Amino acid sequence: MKKLFILTFLFIASYQIFAQINFFTVEKPSIELRTDVDFPIKKDLKFENIGISNSVTAKMNELYTNLGVRISKSTFDLVTEAVYAPTFFNIVNIGAGFTYHFYNYFNTSYENDILAGVYFSWHKGPIFRFDGRVCYFAKIATILDNSYSFIKKNETLKNTSVVINLHFLWQIASWINVYFNFESSNYYDYVLFGTPFFTTGFQINAINNLSFGSDIKIKMVDMFTVPPSISELKINTFVKVRI
């Protein structure tokens, strides 16, 4: 009798929990077009020139995909992401995602970065949102320029690491958001753990589906070993259009 009671209780509890899970919402995706222009103040070898990037994002409640391209005088980046994260209790999303990044430092090297892991978010109303991800990260780099004596021409280097990204967003008013990000990798910059990025900025929601904003990004070196130093400091401006 006791076992029957326990099994009945577990069945009812499981049913109630699964009733609060939304695996997929059938709806028209929200499409967002975004253009960024970033200005390096303290230059990093990876991004030593002004860069222009464009991306397109398709969002539904549980599904998120995007594609981005960044071009500068000496570099080219291509990024694509896909995330599936069911909704729990209308406030939490937990799921899995995949990211691929290609980076070409013209006539010097190119990289392939592959990330796969867990994505999660918490959003109680429009005032505050928290997003994060923890991913396994594999980097494959090929050296084209052998000006470095310790690296052979066309040599391929492989490394693995972990990525931990945390994003915090506050809606101060209906027309303005502010945000702060801690990231061990950035959308166009994938480095081994220990070189984090700190970003803070704002977004103004203008007329109709138009938004624009700006942020400051700091990239640190040797954050968790020796006294850290700033590797890169840049100001980014962006415009978004939702269609």
Keywords:
two-stranded antiparallel sheet, 243 residues, 16 strands, twelve-stranded antiparallel barrel, 7% helix, mainly beta, 1 helix
- Regions with pLDDT < 50 over 5+ consecutive residues? 9-15
Number of helices: 1
Measured by DSSP, the beta-strand proportion falls in over 45%
Report the strand count. 16
Overall shape: it is globular
- Cα-based radius of gyration, to the nearest Å: 21 Å
Helix content: under 10%
Distance between the termini: 59 Å
> Structural class given helices, strands, pairing?
mainly beta
Q: What is the residue-mean pLDDT, rounded to a whole number?
A: 86
Strand order of the largest sheet: 2-3-4-5-7-8-9-10-11-14-15-16
Q: Describe the largest sheet.
A: 12 strands, antiparallel, barrel
Order of helices and strands: HEEEEEEEEEEEEEEEE
Describe the protein's architecture and organization.
The protein is mostly beta strands. The protein has one helix and 16 strands. The chain has one helix spanning 2-19; strands at 21-22, 30-42, 51-59, 63-71, 75-84, 87-88, 92-105, 109-123, 128-143, 156-173, 176-183, 185-186, 189-190, 197-205, 210-221, 229-242. The strands form two sheets. A twelve-stranded antiparallel beta barrel has the order 2-3-4-5-7-8-9-10-11-14-15-16. The protein has a two-stranded antiparallel ribbon with strand order 12-13. Mean pLDDT is 86; it is low at 9-15.
